[in-house]
Amino acid sequence: MTTTHALPTGDEVVQNLPWRWRVQGRIFLIGGLGFMFDAWDVTLNGVLIPLLSKEWDLVPAQAAWIGTANLLGMAIGAFLWGSIADAIGRKRAFTATLLIFSIFTVLGAFAPDIAWFCVFRFLAGVGLGGCVPVDYALVGEFTPRKQRGRVLTAMDGWWPVGAALCGVTSAFIMATVADWRWTMLIMVAPALLVFWVRRSVPESPLFLVRKGRADEARSVINDLIQRTGGTQTEWRLPEAEAAPKFSLRAMGSQLGEVWRTNPKNTVTAWSLFVTILLVYYLALQWMPKILVDAGYAEYKAFLTTSGMAAVGLLGVIAAALLVERVGRKWLLALTGPAAAASLVVVALVVDVPAAATTWLLIYGFVVQVAIPVLYTYVSELYPTQVRASGFGWASTASRVGAGFGPLLFVSVLWPYLGLPLSFALAGVLVLLSVLWMAWFSPETRGAALD
């Protein structure tokens, strides 16, 4: 006779279902489109820096706030929406992030000066900053265990798509209408379309079972079993958790819980996020300006940066193929420092266009092997009850680092140390974070999400 506690829980059933493109794949596609707009928007900072520097006669320290304001908004959005998603559910947070982003992007396009522009970019960032932690939590919790590493790694394939689209559309706009405002407005219409499509996505079954919302959980899980052709079996709900009310105090409590869960893993998550993404954002935001200063025409600088982003799609494919074979830690240990090193070479040969372009393509490939593996690894370090907020706080740390890091980079490091040494210092930080991970944190390949 089978006892109730011998039955699998609902979240275990979901993680063992067969993969179907029309079911879990659809959620992967919808979630990935939001991630694409995150990439498009961050890449747009690099486009806007040289354009607005000319429009409003900005010095580099002023122009740096174009990216810093946006990334600081994303930093707040990452922990804000990650905490909201853990408190009220993935679906509501999933649909709201793009709407807020779209509204303030339109307002930013009509900003009269740099001060108002930065305010609107900050608020747009608050909305879009929630896409990465919320989307990864939702997609990961719908994905079967056997495919989870590849699917979460493949999520980052949307990033080079968004970054490349930004570069190509910006180059076209500046070669035709030559108005920077259209580089912002052109991405709002598809973002609103994705917002509307997201309304059809069900709530995460893992979230529902953890919160004891029995009727909704059974409806979603039974529908998943039927639509995927999984084996019908009895299952049970685990012990329900008390659903926290969303408040600043609750967010502080969640941050405390993230650190109490495993301090060493949280140091790993934060340090990897900060250092690897600092290296990436330095290139993404300042490479167009670096290339323009080296003599590239504006449209050519945007297309070159677009190529750097586009080749990253091959890096994501490589990561998806290797992540389950090699493991998360080994891939990060190799590709994180290698990406930083290739960026140093770019700085050394930037006055030789052919060499600079070649090394930018190498950098774009290697860094996009590292980043999706990083996202997959960090999302697996935390249990379900703090997965979105744990990822969100790590993302917050990275956005703060990527916000203030370039400000320090263009104000102090670059003018006094030069471009190659400045990039090399960032690479040393990546190496230190990789060594901490290797010593203190586990490999998560094949581990079950609780």
Brief characterization of the structure:
The protein is mostly helical and 450 residues long. The protein has helices at residues 10-15, 21-55, 60-88, 90-109, 114-128, 131-142, 145-155, 158-175, 180-185, 188-198, 205-210, 214-228, 248-261, 263-293, 298-310, 312-326, 328-348, 353-381, 387-417, 419-440. Helix 8 runs antiparallel to helix 15.
Question: Please, could you describe this protein's structure?
Answer:
The chain is built from 20 helices and no strands. It is an all-alpha fold. It has one domain (4-440): MFS general substrate transporter like domains (Growth Hormone, Chain: A), CATH 1.20.1250. Helix 3 packs antiparallel against helix 4 and helix 18 (353-381) runs antiparallel to helix 19 (387-417). The chain is globular and about 70 Å long. It is found in: Cell membrane. This is MFS transporter.
